[in-house]
Each structure stands twice: as structure tokens, then as C-alpha cells.
Design brief:
The complex is a heterodimer of chains A (426) and B (386). Chain A is an alpha/beta fold and 426 residues long. Chain A has 2 domains: 255 residues, Spore Coat Polysaccharide Biosynthesis Protein SpsA, Chain A (Alpha-Beta Complex); 134 residues, Hexapeptide repeat proteins (UDP N-Acetylglucosamine Acyltransferase, domain 1), CATH 2.160.10.10. Helices cover 18% and strands 27% of the residues of chain A. In chain A, the strands form 8 sheets. In chain A, strands 5-4-1-6-11-8-12 form a 7-stranded mixed beta sheet, with helices on both faces. In chain A, a hairpin with a 5-residue loop joins strand 9 and strand 10. The longest helix of chain A is centred in the middle third of the chain and has 13 residues. The mean pLDDT of chain A is 95. In chain B, 24% of the residues lie in helices and 28% in strands. In chain B, the strands form 6 sheets. In chain B, strands 1, 4, 5, 6, 8, 9, 10, 11 and 12 form a 9-stranded mixed beta sheet that branches. In chain B, strands 14-17-20-23-26-29 form a 6-stranded parallel beta sheet. Chain B is globular, with a radius of gyration of 22 Å. The chains are: A alpha/beta (426), B alpha/beta (386). At the A-B interface, strand 14, strand 15, strand 16 and strand 19 of A face helix 10, strand 14, strand 16 and strand 19 of B. Strand 14 of chain A pairs antiparallel with strand 16 of chain B.
Chain lengths: 426, 386
């Protein structure tokens, strides 16, 4: 039986603007929302939309991502004649090469698409937070007999310069496209969700491959080329919640949207569940001294302190008299007694000692990288130990795998960066 | 341990009349426990951690709720080649049929087929009422050092815990740990400070169990497997193994209530779940639980998927429970999928799955007599305001 549609998820991005959060793992594998990884949204959208054949293209630091996806069981993608396949770069008889762009990554896996032989291919990003029914977009695609349909969303004009901007008629017929224009004239942004006719995709990827100087990118090269060639391109307007959590601020804010309960983004929706591997942990325990308000808490947590406006991942321990506010604490971390956290992201398996304070004082520019770390959010990496009585300011970054003796002083001022050399492998 | 060294037979066909409506449509083994588990998870986890590959489960009735929970056994790694979960339902019916026809001989056919095909050297046999996180690898290690055919597991408990429970079986053991006597039901006279409580769990050599079954057949004894082991127990060399962890024994509604509420004691909770091997259960895609700004929580446990806007004190809240503004829940157990309306007050109650409590309803029991609301019931305001 031929398949109507298969999905390819681009999950190889480095996500550099997430700083130390993506130092050791790919952006789609970054933890999100109290128990998920970012890619769960795209994978769940696929299965909820009836797409049961999914290729995940990985490249940058794929270990956690591969472990997470496994054979696809949590998403029901461990079926007999379909399911999830991890597509990593590979060597050939002559030579091997990395994926050099989004379009190149798909080109290098054309054999996978051929093997499935679908009528349509949906190309997705693995690093966006949204709930979307792709089958409705496919209906739109078929109705218009489109060669390519791009899912688009209205965004504030002042942010438009960061996106691929679509010019389309009221019905959605695309007549222009600009990738990250300095002076955008439309606020209709591409969400990086593309449905192609399989033969159109194949043909343009093969052609693009041989174009000298092409960056082999869907936004920069493929879409303009198809428009030039007079193909039938359509924009499918999506009006739900969609976030590109590409920066620390965007990531933080999107997490916080879950506790301010943005109405259109409800993870409790039984008709559109978001799936993820479930930890084998007991229920979370809130002790007599514990206090929880406007927060989400996952399984296996032990809460003896106070938690306010925060996101707590599985297996976290918050000791007595600790106070967590406006923060994100990832899996299996411990915050010891007397600590006060404010506006802080804490990575996995990190221990904050007794009486550690974060978010103290006023904002200061980050000494390491003021492009990545440019809000008052303090970021502490995974597998890090912060010793007792450490006072940490705002906009501080403390790397992954920092041990107590790496911390130079018990006062870390706002804007400070404590980074480990090397690539983090050892 | 070698793959297939251990297999298990779990008898979940035990008497459950004292649990009333809670076990009307499910055996004790599939009673929900500690927000997200079923009681059988403990024994399934115990055998999984000892690398058991096959388990036989003997069920009184249809076993629908058990099948729904266990499925292929994958969660406990019980779906490997050559192994698996083998379920035998309608045992109550079968027993009645054999009795009515005075049928003899092949009552234990299923047991024997399972045992001979399991390729195991040891078999773990247990009932379904005891909750314990037991290290079976250690039990078998002990078994290997003695010439005994059976190891029986007990826990030393204060006298007060068993004195008013005539159904409990107690042991006496000699200096070398061999079980010398079994004090059966209703004959409890204890002159020591502590008693050795039988956990109805044994590890036997497979050929010993086959021997016991053959004897039961010869004696025309058509009983549950745990009962025939107890019947012939003292004819064998029985070593004892002391379990030191947390134990709960679910005989009655009160036991069930106390065992759950007992999980709010941090020490008990850690002993059962955090300090031992993990207890495995069927997982579901639960959303992290949401607490609103006005949620007021004191000493409670929550599974995933809950939305909490009200007050919860000293209670256990299972998956997907909604607690609306102004609702107050105290000393209660609220099972999966229940919805508690605004301003409702619930104290000392057990709400089974999918109970709907309308706004303003008051359900107030006592510690000794918790109110039980059966599965899928809607409690209407006009009916329950007493």
C-alpha cells in the first residue's frame, strides 16, 4: 500500500542561542514544560494527525535525542510497516559528508523517501512548541493542488526580520518570499512546516544540489527557486499557539506560558495529547512544610520548601525553607534548605547547596556573550554542583558539569559567566 | 542471575469480601495504590528485578481490570522470547465446577504446564494482599546456601499490629532460621513483644512445587496454589527470610485506607519507593500536575494530570483529578479521573475512579469508617447534603 504522507523532522540544529542548554545536546532534546523534550510536540503532532511514518534527521549531539526517541514507543511509532527512523549523516563508498543545510539533509535522505514512496512529504522542525493538525493542512494542500504549502503564522511586525516572510493573497496563494528580510513588508511568517508533492520535492532538491553557492536551505534557496520556476505555492495560515523557543528568553517565556495558562495552549487537552517517555517514579510528595502555588510539578518530586510560579521536572527535591520563584528546575536536581532561587533555569542532576541565592541585585550585561545572555534570567547547567552559601546575581551563566571547586567565590555578580573549556565531552 | 532462573505464580483469586464495593469489579491485585500504582505492581516489580521472564497469574473472575493493566507485560520486561505473562481466569468458576462434579485429577494442569515450560529452577509464589518491595535476588541467594526446599518470607512486627487480626498467619522459627510452627487463623496468642508475620510469599524449587501439586492431586485437594503450599508447608524443610522494608496487608477497607494514607509518612514512602529498587507500573502520558495560585496544599501526594484549584490536606490524589476552587479535601483518597466541584468538602473518604462530586457537596466520614464512593458515581448536591 502506498503511503499518502510521511514526515521528516529536522532535528540536527545546534541551537546556539540557547547557550549552555544546548552545549551537550541538540535543541530538540532540550527539556521543556515539566517533563517533555521540545521534539515531543512535533512527534505528537505527527501521530495525532495520522502520520505514522516519521524520519528524524539528526546531526548535532544526537545521543540524548536518540535515547529519547528509541523505537518510538511513547508516540505509538513502533508499528510494523511504519514508525520512526533516525536518519543520521553517513559515509558513502567515495566519501561521507555532514548535512550542510536543511535542504541538503533531506536530499541526502532521498533514498528513505523513495523507499516509503509517499504522495506527499511534510518537512518539520523539531524545535518548535505548538499543537497543530497537519491533516488539515494536507487537505488545504490537496484542495489547491499545491506543489508546496507553507504553514504560516501572523507575528508582530517588529519580530518579522527573524523569520522567513511570506507574501500571499487573501486566499493564501504565495507570490513572494523573503528569508529574514531587514525591512519586512509582511508579518506572515513561515513556521518551517512544509508539505511538498513528493516529485516536486525530489526534483528541486536534486537541482539545488548542483547549484554553485547555494546554502541548501529551504527558506533561502528552495522556496525562492520554486517561486521563480512558477510553481504553485500556498500559505496555510495557522492561528494557534506557536513558539520558536530559540532563545533563552523565548524558551523561558514559553515554559511560563504553561503556568499562566495561555488558553489556546493547554496540555491537558485529551484530544491532542503530547506524548513523551514516562519516568518510572512515584507520585510527587508535598510535605507539611511544603507550599505550592501557580506551578506545575511532575512525578517523583519531593517538595518540602516553597514553590511559586515555577516549573518542576520529575525527581526534583526541594528541601525545607528553600524558596523557588519564577524558575525552571529540570529533572533530578536538588535545591537544599535555605536556598532562594529567583528567575533561574537549573539543568538536570544539578545540586544547589544550602543557602544558595540566585537572581540577586540588578541586571548587568553578560561578560561572556551579551547576545545569548541578555535578560535577567540566570542559567545553571546540568550535572553542576553549587556549594553552600553561594550568592549568584542576575543574568549569570554557570556551565554544565561545574564542580564545587570550580566556583571561584561565594559571590558571583550579575552578568558573570563561569564556563568550562573544551567541548563538554569530558 | 541466569535468565529463566526464576518464574512466578501469583494467586490473585483470594477472598476480597471485606473490601466491599472497591473489589466489586476488580480483584485486590488491581486496586489502585499510592496515586499511580496497582497492588500487583509490587509483585510484578519484585520478580522483574530478579530477572524473571515468565509469570502465571490465577484470577478469580474475568480479570478485565488486570488484563487492562498488565497487557503484554512489557512494562515489567515480561514479554521476552520463551517467557511471558500467562493468565488463567475464572478460577472461582472452575473450582465450583470441580466441586459440583466431584471431578478429580487434572485441577492443576495449568500450573504444571506453566512450571514445566518455564525452564526455571525456582518459583516465587505469592498472594495478592501484601504490599512489599522485596529483593528476590537476595532471597534466592539465601535459598542457595541452605539445603531447604522452600524459603518463606516474613516480617517481624509489633504484637499490637496482629493481635486483633485473626486472619494473619504467624510463624515460629528455630535458631537456624527454620520455620517450626505456623500459627493459623484465629489462634493468636502471643506472649512475645513481636510476632513473625507470614507474608504468604515463598520461593520454592520448581520440583518441590510440582511435588506439592502432585500430593494435592492425590489428596483431591482443589485449592489455590498458595493454600496447598500452606497445607503441606511443614512437611518440607522451610527456611525463613526476614523482610525488613515497609509492609501493608490489604484485607479490609480500613487496611486499604490506612495503607494509602500511610504513604504520607515520609519514612514509609521513602522505604517503599525511593530507597529500594523502583516499583514499576504501566505508564501513561500524564501531564505534569498544575497548581493554581489559590491552591493550598499540605502534606499530600499527587500523580500527574491533575488540576488543583482548591485545598488538599493529608490526602492522596491519583491521576487526572480536577479539584475546583474552594473545594476542600482532607484525609482522603481520590482515585483517577475524579472531579471535585467548587466548594465541595470531602473528609475521610475513598472516592473510586471517575467519581464526580457536584459543587457544594459534603462527604464526611471518620478515620475508623471512611466513606467509600464506588466507581463512576456522581454525587449530587441535593442527595448528599446531610
Amino acid at each position: 500500500m502506498t503511503k499518502e504522507i510521511i514526515a521528516l523532522i529536522l532535528a540536527g540544529g545546534t541551537g546556539t542561542r540557547l547557550g549552555i542548554l544546548t552545549k551537550l545536546l541538540a535543541k530538540p532534546a532540550v527539556l521543556y514544560g515539566g517533563k517533555y523534550r521540545i521534539i515531543d510536540f512535533t512527534l505528537s503532532n505527527c501521530i495525532n494527525s495520522g502520520i505514522d511514518t516519521v524520519g528524524v534527521l539528526t546531526q548535532y549531539r544526537p545521543l540524548q535525542l536518540n535515547n529519547h526517541i528509541g523505537i518510538g514507543k511513547p508516540w505509538d511509532l513502533d508499528r510494523m510497516n511504519c514508525g520512526v527512523t533516525i536518519l543520521s549523516p553517513f559515509t558513502r563508498q567515495q566519501k561521507g559528508e555532514w548535512y550542510s543545510g536543511t535542504a541538503d539533509a533531506v536530499y541526502q535522505n532521498l533514498h528513505y523517501i523513495d523507499e516509503q514512496n509517499p504522495k506527499y512529504v511534510i518537512v518539520l522542525s523539531g524545535d518548535h512548541i505548538y499543537k497543530m493538525n497537519y491533516s488539515m493542512m494536507l487537505d488545504f494542500h490537496k484542495k489547491n493542488n499545491a506543489d508546496l504549502t507553507i504553514s504560516a503564522i501572523q507575528i508582530p511586525l517588529e519580530e518579522a526580520h527573524r523569520y522567513g516572510i511570506i507574501h500571499a493573497t487573501d486566499e493564501g496563494k504565495i507570490y513572494g518570499f523573503e528569508e529574514k528580510p531587514p525591512e519586512p513588508k509582511s508579518n506572515l511568517a513561515s513556521m518551517g512546516v512544509y508539505i511538498f508533492k513528493m516529485d516536486v520535492l525530489k526534483k528541486c532538491l536534486i537541482e539545488d544540489r548542483s547549484i554553485e553557492g547555494s546554502s541548501h536551505d529551504f527558506g533561502k534557496n528552495i522556496i525562492p527557486k520554486l517561486l521563480n520556476d512558477g510553481k504553485n505555492l500556498w500559505a496555510y495560515t495557522f492561528s494557534g499557539y506557536w513558539r520558536d523557543v530559540g532563545t533563552i528568553q523565548a524558551y523561558y517565556e514559553s515554559n511560563m506560558d504553561l503556568i499562566t495558562r495561555v488558553p489556546q495552549f493547554n496540555l491537558f487537552d485529551h484530544n491532542w495529547k503530547i506524548y513523551t517517555p514516562n519516568p518510572v517514579k512515584p507520585a510527587h510528595y508535598i510535605g507539611e512544610s511544603g507550599y505550592v502555588s501557580k506551578s506545575i510539578i511532575s512525578e517523583g518530586c519531593m517538595i518540602f520548601g516553597q514553590v511559586k510560579n515555577s516549573i518542576i521536572f520529575p525527581g526534583v527535591t526541594i528541601e525545607e525553607n528553600a524558596f523557588i520563584e519564577d524558575s525552571i528546575i529540570m529533572s533530578k536536581s536538588t535545591v537544599k534548605s535555605g536556598s532562594r532561587l529567583n528567575c533561574t533555569i537549573v539543568g538536570e542532576k544539578t545540586t544547589l547547596g544550602r543557602n544558595v541565592r540566585t537572581g540577586i541585585g540588578d541586571y548587568a550585561e553578560n561578560i561572556f556573550n551579551s547576545e545569548i545572555y541578555k535578560t535577567k534570567i540566570t542559567v545553571i547547567g546540568s550535572d553542576t554542583i553549587v556549594p553552600d552559601n553561594t550568592n549568584i546575581g542576575c543574568n549569570v551563566v554557570i556551565d554544565n558539569k561545574i564542580s564545587a571547586q570550580d566556583i571561584p567565590s561565594s559571590n558571583i555578580p550579575s552578568g558573570y559567566a563561569l564556563l568550562k573549556g573544551g567541548d563538554g565531552n569530558v | 542471575m541466569r535468565k529463566h532462573e526464576l518464574c512466578a505464580i501469583l494467586n490473585v483469586a483470594e477472598d476480597d469480601t471485606e473490601l466491599g464495593v472497591l473489589t466489586k469489579k476488580r480483584p485486590i491485585a488491581s486496586l489502585p495504590f499510592a496515586c499511580r500504582y496497582r497492588i500487583i505492581d509490587f509483585n510484578l516489580s519484585n520478580i522483574a528485578h530478579a530477572d524473571a521472564k515468565s509469570a502465571a497469574i490465577f484470577i478469580a473472575d474475568s480479570g478485565r481490570s488486570l488484563y487492562d493493566h498488565i497487557r503484554s507485560g512489557k512494562c515489567w520486561d515480561l514479554d521476552s522470547y520463551g517467557g511471558g505473562i500467562f493468565t488463567f481466569s475464572q478460577n472461582r468458576h472452575k473450582k465450583a465446577l470441580y466441586e459440583a462434579a466431584s471431578r478429580k485429577g487434572d485441577f492443576y494442569e495449568d500450573h504444571l504446564a506453566f512450571l514445566t515450560r518455564s525452564k526455571a529452577n525456582y518459583v516465587f509464589v505469592a498472594g495478592s494482599k501484601i504490599i512489599a518491595n522485596l529483593d528476590l535476588v537476595d532471597v534466592i541467594k539465601k535459598h542457595e546456601t541452605t539445603p531447604c526446599e522452600i524459603v518463606r518470607i516474613y516480617k517481624e512486627v509489633p504484637k499490637a499490629e496482629v493481635i486483633n487480626r485473626p486472619k494473619e498467619r504467624l510463624f515460629t522459627i528455630n535458631d537456624s532460621g527454620k520455620i517450626t510452627n505456623v500459627v493459623e487463623e484465629g489462634r493468636v496468642t502471643i506472649d512475645t513483644e513481636t510476632a513473625l508475620l507470614d507474608m504468604n510469599m515463598s520461593v520454592l524449587k520448581v520440583h518441590t512445587l510440582i511435588d506439592i501439586i502432585k500430593r494435592a492431586e492425590a489428596d483431591n485437594l482443589n485449592e489455590d496454589i498458595t493454600d496447598i503450599i500452606n497445607h503441606y508447608l511443614l512437611d518440607y524443610c522451610v527456611n525463613s527470610y526476614e523482610y525488613k522494608g515497609y509492609l501493608a496487608n490489604i484485607e479490609s477497607v480500613k487496611d486499604y485506607y490506612n495503607a494509602n494514607i500511610g504513604m504520607l509518612n515520609e519514612e514509609n514512602f521513602n522505604e517503599l519507593f525511593h530507597n529500594q529498587l523502583p516499583v514499576i507500573t504501566k505508564t501513561q502520558s500524564g501531564v505534569p500536575t498544575y497548581f493554581s495560585e489559590n491552591a493550598d496544599i499540605n502534606l499530600s501526594q499527587f500523580a500527574t494530570g491533575c488540576e488543583v484549584y482548591g485545598t488538599v490536606e493529608e490526602s492522596l490524589i491519583f491521576r487526572k483529578v480536577n479539584i475546583h476552587e474552594g473545594a476542600k479535601i482532607k484525609n482522603s483518597i481520590i482515585m483517577q479521573g475524579s472531579r471535585i466541584g467548587a466548594g465541595a468538602i470531602i473528609e475521610y473518604a475513598i472516592l473510586d475512579k471517575n467519581v464526580v462530586v457536584e459543587p457544594g457537596v459534603r462527604i464526611i466520614g471518620t478515620r475508623d469508617n471512611p466513606i467509600v464512593i464506588g466507581k463512576d458515581i456522581t454525587v449530587h448536591a441535593y442527595f448528599w447534603n446531610i
